[in-house]
Amino acid sequence: MNKHGRRLIVAALMSMSVYGGTYYWYKASATKFDKNVDTKPVAFVSTVKEDVTRRPASRLIWQMLDQGEPLYPGEAIKTSNKGEIRIQFAESDRYIDLDPDSLIVISMNKNEISLDLMDGSLFVAGGDGSSNSGNGPALTLNSAKGKVDLSKATASLSKSASGGVDLQVIKGSVKTDDGKELKGINQSAIQILSPQQDQPTIINPDNLEPVIFSWKGFPSNTVVSLWIGSSRKDLKEVAVTKTTNMSSLDRKLKSGKYFWKLVGKDSVTQKTIGESSLQRLEVAARYAPAIVAPEAESHQKLEKFPANVQFKWTRPEGIQNIHFELSKDESFKTKILSQNIEKEDSISQNLPAGDYYWRLSGNYQGLSKPVVGRVNKFSLSNQPEKPKVLLTWLDPNQGKPSYFVKEAKTNWAWTGEHLDQVKKWKLIVHQGEVNSRSPASEPLSTTEHVKPVADVTVPGAGVYTAVVEAYDEKGKLLAKTEYKTQETKVLPLLPSPEFEPKSGDLKANNDGKLPIQWEKVDGAKEYNLSLKDSTGKELRKSKFTSTSTALVNLLPGQYQIDIAAIDQYGRESVRKPARVVVVPEMSSLKAPKLKKVKVN
Helix (H) and strand (E) counts for the chain? Predict the structure, then answer.
């Protein structure tokens, strides 16, 4: 083995020994900490999302945290930019939610748990001001102005830009060191009515309805905008009131955690006149029971009536009881049956021929309102069912964008089967991309048509999404297309023509005549030719419909010549660099002779 190989082996052994020593020290200290039975845990990890780490007071290395792990006094807990953790305190119904990009230190002295918020934000839940709320050890916040008792409060805390802690009391009250009770700290004059910070807003993803944001406290001349983001630092404006007397806005949201606020501007000057405090929002998904039979929009051909109809469904996990409703009308004003069902997954009912509507709703523990499912329609008859209307998109642009010059338009066309049942089409266009799995934005336009084709004017270049709905003479929805996207672009200018030959100087004849020829440009209505002298001063400018011409009576010297194509809209293409024209000195073209000279 050569000298170089021995050095590599020695270096590898040294690296492995250092790694092994470090790993042994890390595991040994971790084992020592984990086996410290003399210290009782102050809290436990209830839930954890993404990367969350902790560092015991006696260690320098951060450890990953998992669900169910105990937390001890003196530990620091840190979340990543997407990490979240819920910490449930021992011997208490109180918990805290630590937001992304946050860092806290939990300490305990006698029967008091103290929090040091080093960075980010958190939410403290479990206190409402009553004598029974916030049981267990006292919970305090260490701040620059002393301790603040949070034992009987539900509150939101965040590290401010100045280094202090902003505290927003949602329920209950807090006390300072001197025993002074504070009902609210850093509270905005704007009162938020919904949604609530201390309880999740429940949505049914199968029957998505918008979350209602309502308030009071803005002056009557205020236009209010709603700002929402996944963190405190990335709020974006998502909705604005259309009139100054509105006190609510709505927005469809997926399940998850959000931050939001309201910003009010004067309707005349557009200056900000106030905003709400920053709010937290948890949107939780809960599902209504899923129908099995009869299927939605189904038709059953039967011979005898009344007929025994079997209703079946499946129960989502965690649902406590189910409420069944059956009606002859879609608004459920005249119900045939309304019944609570504890355990069964089916029910039967004798029904005459006709159209019926039914729905299921379910109650979950901890929710004051049931989760309501979709309204499902079915029909019973001794006649065969009408064939279903089937719709499909056509592509008038053959996969290409819709080009425009001044006014942007989208071109939509569709067809299908059994269209004789359709009396009216409704075309709904959205700006941007939309699909059936994501909440749709507010439509850009909704138009009605009698023919399966439509041109819709849009704001400008971009991507647009449309869906078509078919209705019968009674206004009943018969069918609906899938979402289709279309792109609009400004019509590009024509390419610049090229002279022949494509390189070198263009040379005139001895008599000052220059034959010129250029390539044809598809789409060109005419061509604009410009002749300049050697300094760039324009001498001639002419338009041609053909692709050739001849310049005559050119005096000896050098010239510049360029050309542009003009489209049907009168737009001129970008000109290529001018070509040099050379007229030889031996040109036979001479200056005119003076026959008479008269001097006064």
Answer: 1, 50
